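Researcher: Good morning. I'm working through a list of sequences from a screen, and I'd like to move beyond sequence-only analysis. For each chain I'm collecting a predicted structure so we can compare shapes side by side. This is the next one on the list. No need for commentary yet; just the structure.
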Amino acid sequence: MNILIPYDIKTTGMNNPYLFSLIRALVKIDSVTNVTVGYGWLYEDIDIDVIHLHWPELLVKSQLSDMSREDLLQQSHFEKVLDHLEKKKRSGTKIITTVHNEKPHTDSQGIFAKFYSEIYSLSDGFIHMGEESEKLTNLQFEDETVGKKNFIITHGNYSIFPSNLERDDCRKKLNINKDQKVLLSFGAIRSEKELNMGIDSFKNANIDHSIFIMAGKLPFPYKSRVKHFTVRKKLYRNYLNEKLRTVEKVISPEEVQIYLKSADVLFIPRFNTLNSGNVALGFTFGKVVIGPDYGVIGETLNKTGNPVFNPFNLNSVSEAIRLGFDFLESGLGEKNQKYAQKEMNWETVAYRTVEAYQAIRI
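Model: Good morning. Structure tokens for this chain:
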């Protein structure tokens, strides 16, 4: 079976090595003859049995010299992708789409809504990371998904990241005392709402000997823009609060373990977000994980006994933070790690993905 995954690893990012881990596991399966990777191969005349799509918007933005310049997109960019997918389908190729998000993280003009609908219409089946994803997708795209096959395949773990340092050594690198309780937000905080929710809920939780580390990208990083200061006004007001720390940068793969092993509880400061790789990341490193009671995030955390919260209720978020620290002595982190090793291992994820490929070809 010849598989095309029309994305480049360098632009989906080793900072989130989801695709690399999937491809590395797929090529080890006997029934997979070849996995072709890269945006450009979608437009080549090659024999492909299954095209595996992930983030629809990247197929369009990949045609730009700068993928962040959505203002440069034209209708022809969308038509090019759709025309070639239709051509592949006419030749007998099947299309399966993994649903990562309900909508793109950045789409201020709403230009991708119709495109998602068109991609889903062309898809022969869908891979979801949880039952809530299937329910929400079928509800929002009823006409595009009706009668098509759905497969539940969990997000894979992050065992690809190095894990050779001891906790104490990691804490020394971050200047954290042994007895401090560490709440960690890891990765991008995308909005003022997410930023403020984290700050307010942590302060409201009032955990003794605790610090809150926000490691990753923060919204509106450029001080040359007025919005930088308006969005971050609460952060600046707490500038002298030693319990709040920011490490504003892209965390390299080599540094991931330093932050995760230093943390006690991993906090996902999202509102209505379907999936988050941070659930798998926290589980991989044996952390208690707290997040919103929505989508696959809430589904997975509820199933594994991790605290969830209503992101629109400050007290609910603070209570989840307190519970997260209370659960440290219960062995929940170790249970999460075992769950990641058993349920989220890439051999199983790849095997079930190939089963999905085979099912849509019948």
